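debug: dumping io for the single-chain case to check the tokenizer round-trip. Nothing else runs in this session.
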Amino acid sequence: MSDMRIGGLASGMDIDKLVNDLMRAERQPLNKMEQDREWLTWQRDAYRDVNKQLSELDTLAFDMKLERTFNSKSVTSSDSAVSATATAASGNGDYTLSVEQVATSAYNYSRNPITTDGRTLDPNANLSTQTGNFKHGLTLGETFSITTYNEDGSKNTQSFNVTGDKSLNDILSEISDSDLGVRAFYDKSADQVMIERTVTGNFNQDENEFLGAEIGFDGNAEFLASTLDIKNGDNSSGTWKLNEKGGEDAKFTYNNGLKITSHSNQYALNGVNFQFNDVTDGNVKVNVSNNVDDAVDKIVEFVDKYNKVIEDLNEKTDEKRYRDFPPLTEKQKEDMEEREIELWEEKAKSGMLKNDSVIEGGLNQMRTNWYTPIQNDGAFTMMSEIGITTSANYRDGGKLFIDEDELRTALSQDPESVHKLFSGTDANPGVARRLEQTIDNTVQSIEKKAGKSSTVDNSFLLGRRIEDLNKEMDDFEDRLVQIEDRYWREFGAMEKAIQRMNQQSAYIMQNFG
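debug: decoded output
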């Protein structure tokens, strides 16, 4: 088909307009298919929105199965020197302890400035250029080793080479990046090197090894002992004393009798995780109790989400369908204002999920999940026993109401039974488990109809119908091209006939007129 056609020269008729009018009528079935495809696309997206809401509710339902949701704890301390956190398994009550010593990290450093008086040391320059800047000299080519200790007393030893193509910071970085669990750095202002453990505690229990140092090395290692002036011990008094500082365990007494040590400033007792921030002046009392407010907030959040989903889905299945407002085609939109399009599509999109059996079935089952008794060994078998009831007004569609006073009482007196009511077991599922199963079944049924964003169109019902429509529309477009070509051929033949008639008429008039 030519993109440019001129007709009506012989007949004087507007052939282009005539063909366009005829093709407008021919396109009506295509317009209907376009509207059907748009409707199916809207419906697919509406189903996916339902699954999104159900998935959000499913996430909260999962939290309702967890013990920590109902047994969250509040912890208070009489002194900031000791803080604590508690898990759902923590025992309630007072915990009394005193901290005699906090755990510290071991560290050692240069006894004196390491740079020659009047010189400037560049820690980033190659050592081969800095030999004269070290007060106690520098021997290149030396290898030294550092040893640290693990919690079980085992050793970590690593060796380092002092070569001229390395800088001081290069070697200190190698030490820091090793598996020794130490960091080393040079401070230019103090003109000293610091080397320290990255963990607290006393792991070297043998004073015959490096005088009990946590960061041990051979005293004959010139780079550490002489060049950097870092020594394991001092014998100036005739008796060897450890130069290293820190490296101490935390020491505390629990309940005025049990003396405990810890490599770190954290220690767990009966599910309570204590943090030692400072030495205490006498006993500190830490109290652990049920955090009823937190549990109530989580249950209220879950019920509010459930009510919102119930309300939205009931509205979708009850929404009126306006069949006189089909989706607009692109050509129809061209002749309308933006506000007109918006109002039209508001009507056109109404009722896409009206009376949907899958959604209505899911809603009915979710309502049943709430009021069916739960078989468990706890104190409660019905949600109404903890203050959660279903609305008696059928217009509410199964919304839930919470008596917070009853709920708080149940959580204060027996949080475990409240947990069992929501969670249950695989054999006797609680409300949360029932809802999870109902949601899962509903989501899977909807996905068979509408798929999800990651699935291909031919794997779900609406996708296949959209694909079929796309093929029909492509085939119909090809047919319209043929029809338009036929119209132009027919009008072209008419033009030729009229032109011959006009020529014959002119010939007769010229010769016999």
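debug: round-trip ok. The chain is about 40% helix and 20% strand.
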